[in-house]
Amino acid sequence: MTNATLNTTPRFSTPTDPAALAEARAAMPVRQLMVNPAELTTDRWLVDDDPYFSHFLAVLSAVFPRGEDFFVESVRRHRDAVKDNPVLRAQVRAFVGQEAMHGRQHRALNERLQTLGYPTEHADRAIGRACDRILKLRPNTLAVAATAAAEHLTGVFAAVVLSDDRTRHLLFSQPEVEPLIAWHALEELEHKNVAFDVMTTVGVRYPTRIAGFLVTISMLATVVTQQWIAALIGMHSELTWKQRRRFIHNLRRQRLLHPSFVIETLKYLRPGFHPDDTNTDHLVRQWRARLINEGAIRENRSPAA
């Protein structure tokens, strides 16, 4: 990212260092979102007069809850491997708590979107089936490798959302949606290293790491594209040329469906890559303070190790 800097120092260098353990616990508190996504008041479109982007964002929200469940399960299955590393163990507990809260709030939003005509339930079932299949694949570490790759994707997504005002204002301007997305993005940046570090701890080597990346990319590309197209086909007769022009205009102004996003994503393929190579701590500090000051989030104690 243009707003990020290269960080060559590991976040926590000594697994049993009390100071590092305290930092790990404090760095990732489980927060409560104080805005209720179920109270979304829009008449129809998440993005003004743009059903194309509106359905795309609805599909993304729809795949989050089951995706978060998958992330948690794939990391938890290796919890014995981190029992002797209290820092990583504390991070895993915080990761699980944060992801559970993300899933809960996106489910609330998805239920509301379903009532507005977005087929979020169908997308939820589709991603659930895909995640269930991955959990059964061998080797047993492939699921955590897929999760590490997915966490990289969400980290790139989060950095774009929090650093690019135009993208955020264009796509997430709804008052019930912007705090949800900003809170979710903030915590994705906080715990972006956790699944990767668990994967490394259980001995995953480069070929399996890349296999996990390919599994994640193919699954998400397939499910999201299919569900997005299906949603648009379902309302094809309602789409207007004005809305198509609006989508093309919006496409040029945002940075999620953008070549720069692909470039950042592909950095994962570099041997020796680590999520903390790109320092996004400034975004975490900025948005934590902003969301607290706005009353959008409340911090709870992080889970005990």
Strand element count: 4
Number of helices: 12
Summarize the main sheet. Answer: 2 strands, antiparallel
Beta percentage is: under 5%
**CATH fold-level assignment:** Ribonucleotide Reductase, subunit A
For the record, the count of structural domains works out to 1
**H-E string:** EHEHHHHHHHHHHEHE
| Major β-sheet strand ordering | 1-3
Q: Estimate percent helicity.
A: 55-70%
CATH architecture: Orthogonal Bundle
* CATH class term: Mainly Alpha
Report the end-to-end length measured between terminal Cα atoms.
Answer: 33 Å
Summing up helix and strand content along with how strands pair, one would put the structural category as mainly alpha
What would the principal axes of the Cα set say about the shape? globular
Mean pLDDT: 91
Computed Rg: 19 Å
Low-confidence blocks of residues: 1-15
Characterise this structure.
With 305 residues, this protein is mainly alpha-helical. It has a single domain (47-297), classed as Ribonucleotide Reductase, subunit A (Orthogonal Bundle). The protein is built from 12 helices and 4 strands. A two-stranded antiparallel sheet has the order 1-3. A two-stranded antiparallel sheet has the order 2-4. It is globular. The chain starts with a strand and ends in a 6-residue tail after the last strand.
